[in-house]
Amino acid sequence: MSRRSEAAGRLRPLWDALTAGDPEAVHRARKLTRRAQAELRVADAGGKTERAWRDLRRAAAPLRDHDVAGDHLRQALTELDVPGDTLAYFDRTWAERRAARLAATEWPEPPPAFKLRRGWKDRARRLIRRDGKRLLAAGEAALATHDAEQWHDWRKRLKRYRYTLALLGEVPPVLTDTLEALGRFQDAEVVLGILHGDPDLLRYERARLIAREEVARNKAQGRVRELFPELARLLSVGDAGED
Fold first, then answer.
1. pLDDT per residue over 181-224, tens digit each?
2. Best CA proximity match to 171, nearest among 53, 38, 33
3. What is the DSSP letter of 169?
């Protein structure tokens, strides 16, 4: 049987808060675009609908990345026990940076609703089996290199696989754990890029912040390597369950 997209239904009540820049709405909308990406693979909704959801994901991404980086930096400053005026300075300047980013954001029109047409579960299972084999090879290649972009690309594809699995049932813990570690790796890359790219930002704490994120990045990579044998077994089987 066909069914309506859950992503589209959940996005509608968030729209006003999203376009106003509410951080929680930005976070939830970004996740919904990932779910929609998985749904669209089995929906046959047409290129226009796919582009509309892609455009929303790209519009929300800079704000969401900024919020995540800010959370990591503030937590780090708290752990480093910096003076209160340093925290206040960070909060003020980070809010100003976010306001400028929000003002520069061009929100697209709300993406349309769509249906997952008849037979979508069979299509999802075929995609999972195909994706599993490709993701296994991509993971082996990522673990053999220090190229952050290759790790990031693998993470994006693995997230799409996770949401496709979720359409059919529960997501195995090893997959969510791996994605959590890959997410922390990517967050560290973003924070390090900000710190290296803006020497005036928190310049008195910059060296300690960089060292912290480098440790977090290496720890996250190590966690992915620990999880990979179990993840590889999942990807090799590609079992999406039954109706």
1. 999 999 999 999 999 998 888 888 999 999 999 999 999 999 99
2. 38
3. S
